[in-house]
Amino acid sequence: MNQFVVRVQYTWYQFIFRLISMKKVIITPGCIACGACEFVAPEVFEVTDLSRVKPGADIAANEAAIIEAVNGCPVGVIRYGEEVGDEHVD
């Protein structure tokens, strides 16, 4: 009989803390679809007629590239932080 071993990576309170403090990426209106964000972080952004965040993108693993995309956006429409909807972005 095969047994599966599951290794717990976080304690319950570490999991809750990570869940509460998860950072988000949004693109506000005004995108010009220049493709700069997709060039810097193709795992996170996709540009068609507008830029968008890919569904299921691993935000935490691509944090450095996201920050570079935020800083490189020519129109400043990419927001990244814990409370992006409330204009509080770290």
Description:
With 90 residues, this protein is an alpha+beta fold. It is 27% helix and 16% strand. The chain is built from three helices and four strands. It has a two-stranded antiparallel sheet with strand order 1-4. It has a two-stranded antiparallel sheet with strand order 2-3. A hairpin with a 3-residue loop joins strand 2 and strand 3. The C terminus is likely disordered.
Q: What does the secondary structure layout of this molecule look like, with pairings?
A:
Blueprint: H1 12-20, E1 24-27, H2 36-40, E2 45-47, E3 51-53, H3 63-72, E4 78-81
Give a quick account of the main beta sheet: strands, pairing sense, barrel closure: 2 strands, antiparallel
Residues in helix, % = 25-40%
Query: Which radius of gyration do the C-alpha atoms yield?
Result: 16 Å
The CATH level-2 architecture is identified as: 2-Layer Sandwich
Quickly name the level 1 CATH class. Answer: Alpha Beta
Please state the overall shape, judged from the principal axes of the Cα atoms. Answer: elongated
What is the SS-derived class?
alpha+beta
**Tally the helices: what do you get?**
3
**What is the CATH topology?**
Alpha-Beta Plaits
Through-space gap between termini: 50 Å
Unreliable spans: 86-90
